[in-house]
Design the sequence.
């Protein structure tokens, strides 16, 4: 199913001709939350003991994943293990210090890094892991992720949605009214036509900023329209293979409807060096948490 407003990844080859490998194909103990307000899981502090600097500990537990307005997002219960997640999107300053370059169109040290492919995000995760003395999660020859490694990686789609919802069951983590989105995120009605520095809007109940809007966020999972009908109930990691990867959260030039907590989108990962990303894609990192799922 092709989503509305789908944008193809641009590839530079022989005078900006598309490379076949880069083309996008058409088209992701129970806590009992109360509708419209954080549930029992919505209790961790951004400064929880043991959380790495700049990260939030996301508690393990069961939540309702999906969006009944979308054909590819049938609501279903999912349980995820605890993990750490970056409070904000990776900034251009962070990316350039680690990787030595800044691919972004809209320059600014505190702006989120954009024009990054999924493969760029993965390479950053590995480099950051090395710099922090952790074991990298990705094999960049096969693009496989070692979920047992203690390094940085991209969130699974289920982890991302659990973190975004922060214990809520509403369309957005702040309720069902899209008119309130301007208090929490940057989208087509308030962005001014470009991404904005991270952390300027209100966070969700778990202390995560820009989970709705600003940039679409790469997830680790491959995208499949009907995956929810076959995914495991605990710690789903996406299909084994597909043409595109999941992105979540909406972006600065997309409507409020695309910023809903359960809304799924997808894009080509850009394995080939001739591909380059658009200025609507960014990412944040996660790490496995010790101490069990609670």
Sequence:
């Amino acid at each position: 199913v092709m989503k509305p407003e789908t944008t193809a990844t641009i590839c530079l080859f022989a005078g900006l001709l598309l490379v076949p490998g880069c083309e996008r194909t058409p088209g992701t103990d129970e806590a009992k939350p109360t509708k419209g307000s954080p549930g029992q899981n919505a209790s961790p502090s951004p400064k929880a003991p043991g959380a790495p600097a700049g990260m939030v500990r996301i508690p393990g537990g069961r939540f309702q994943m999906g969006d009944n307005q979308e054909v590819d997002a049938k609501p279903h219960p999912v349980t995820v293990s605890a993990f750490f997640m970056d409070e904000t999107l990776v900034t251009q300053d962070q990316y350039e210090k680690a990787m030595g370059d800044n691919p972004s169109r809209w320059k600014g040290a505190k702006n989120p890094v954009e024009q990054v492919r999924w493969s760029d995000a993965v390479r950053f995760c590995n480099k950051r892991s090395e710099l922090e003395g952790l074991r990298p999660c990705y094999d960049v020859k096969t693009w496989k992720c070692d979920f047992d490694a203690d390094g940085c990686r991209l969130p699974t789609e289920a982890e991302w949605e659990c973190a975004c919802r922060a214990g809520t069951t509403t369309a957005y983590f702040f309720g069902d009214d899209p008119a309130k989105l301007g208090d929490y995120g940057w989208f087509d009605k308030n962005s001014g036509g470009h991404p904005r520095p991270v952390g300027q809007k209100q966070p969700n109940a778990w202390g995560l900023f820009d989970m709705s809007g600003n940039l679409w966020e790469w997830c680790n999972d491959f995208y499949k329209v009907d995956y929810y009908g076959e995914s495991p109930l605990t710690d789903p990691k996406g299909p084994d293979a597909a043409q595109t990867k999941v992105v979540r959260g909406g972006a600065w030039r997309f409507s409020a409807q695309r910023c809903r907590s359960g809304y799924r989108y997808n894009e080509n990962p850009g394995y080939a060096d001739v591909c380059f990303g658009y200025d609507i894609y960014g990412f944040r990192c996660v790490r496995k948490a010790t101490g069990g799922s609670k």
